[in-house]
Design goal:
The complex is a heterodimer. By secondary structure, chain A is mainly alpha-helical. Chain A is built from nine helices and two strands, in the order ααββααααααα. By secondary structure, chain B is mainly alpha-helical. The relative contact order of chain B is 0.08. Classes of the chains: A mainly alpha, B mainly alpha.
Chain lengths: 245, 136
């Protein structure tokens, strides 16, 4: 009784081989760059947080919610990770989730892994991070500002990922099917899913903000001025270790 | 900086709670998931009709998804978030997925993180953290 349960991502064969390879290379480059950039933001406090954020995104992606009769959607997580742990670590979080889903749960084709990572871990995360940074003054003002920022970033994230798919299919779709007919339904449905993603992102960011606002990367110092703060953290952390021993 | 010490303890509680929520979502809420095809699948199947054959589903007509082929690991034990094809064990598959993701991501991020403070035995950082050689 196989009725395609919980297939969340692009399956094998949707793109031709050169296009799949191209996006495999783009995904690898994006992950490599993120690995380098992520180091600066990971410390004893943010590393466990980032691991948990990845685990949470895996869990949340399992929850398909209805958007139209017979059509569902689920969180992609790009905006959530960008706001909570920043774009570089966030890209790694979503990439790990996609790799686990593809290798362990046969969800998302092996040859489409690069394209899926490009759409959800790179494009979605980047677009929603830009939105979140543009709205950062609002997010810092008060709780509703933060929730609105999370909602809008979440919505953009889903739509951007679907734009990525359209782009990939336009470049190298395997079946000779014109992408033009898919543009409007694709964007329309993913705008609806994006509203769901926005709500889940806002709820989750709101919950973290209620408990540990200091763990929300977006609300902390900007990356350029972040280094002195990070050094300050290091010093106080070492003080704690000494105090305890 | 007593505040930091408090925060650290609070941090552990928060992390445990966050992990429990993730496990709960994967183990329990996953049973409430809508089983309709998602947006991507819906759009890529537009123009095709789904025909059930003895080998499962087949698409006829003209649509993006027609090029799609079955996943190479479609017969693997946890395929489609089941356990050995048993979809009533989705919650268990979800728990395993959360734990594997946590292990991989947590492990990677622990390896990548900056050595902060004088962790005993490691002499890569000066006691008051001089990061120039790690900073890029």
């Amino acid at each position: 009784m196989h009725t395609t349960p919980l297939a969340l991502h692009m399956t094998d064969g949707l793109l031709n081989a050169p296009t799949a390879l191209l996006f495999g290379a783009i995904a690898l480059a994006g992950i490599g760059f993120s690995l380098v950039k992520a180091r600066a933001t990971l410390d004893d406090r943010t590393a466990p947080m980032a691991g948990l954020v990845a685990a949470f995104v895996f869990a949340a992606q399992m929850i398909n919610f209805p958007v139209l009769p017979g059509v569902s959607g689920h969180l992609l997580g790009g905006a959530l990770v960008a706001i909570l742990v920043g774009p570089w670590v966030g890209t790694l979080c979503v990439s790990i989730v996609l790799v686990v889903q593809s290798l362990l749960f046969a969800d998302g084709g092996l040859t489409m892994l690069g394209a899926n990572i490009t759409n959800m871990a790179l494009l979605g995360t980047a677009a929603s991070y830009l939105v979140a940074v543009a709205l950062r003054p609002l997010a810092r003002r008060n709780r509703s500002g933060l929730l609105v920022t999370a909602f809008l970033a979440g919505t953009i994230n889903t739509v951007m990922a679907s734009v990525g798919f359209l782009l990939e299919y336009w470049i190298g779709g395997a079946a000779g099917f014109s992408v033009a007919q898919a543009v409007l339904p694709m964007l329309g449905i993913h705008l609806l899913i994006g509203i769901g993603e926005g709500i889940i992102t806002a709820l989750t960011v709101g919950a973290v903000a209620a408990g540990r606002p200091d763990l929300i990367r977006l609300l902390r110092a900007t990356p350029s001025s972040g280094r002195p703060t990070a050094r300050g953290d290091t010093e106080s952390a070492s003080g704690t270790v000494e105090g305890r021993s | 900086m007593n505040n930091t010490a408090q925060r650290r303890r609070g941090g552990r509680t928060f992390f445990v709670r966050f992990g429990v929520v993730a496990l709960f979502v994967a183990a329990v809420v996953s049973y409430l998931a809508d089983s309709s095809p998602d947006g991507l699948e819906t759009v890529t199947r537009q123009g095709c009709e789904t025909v059930r054959t003895s080998n499962g589903e087949q698409l006829t007509g003209d649509c993006i998804a027609r090029g799609g082929t079955e996943h190479a690991f479609a017969e693997s034990p946890l395929a489609d978030y089941t356990v050995l094809g048993n979809s009533s064990l989705t919650g268990l598959a979800g728990i395993l997925g959360v734990l594997v993701t946590l292990l991989l991501a947590g492990g990677l991020f622990a390896l990548l993180r900056k050595p902060s403070g004088p962790t005993s035995g490691s002499s890569t950082t000066a006691p008051n953290g001089d990061p120039p050689d790690t900073g890029r």
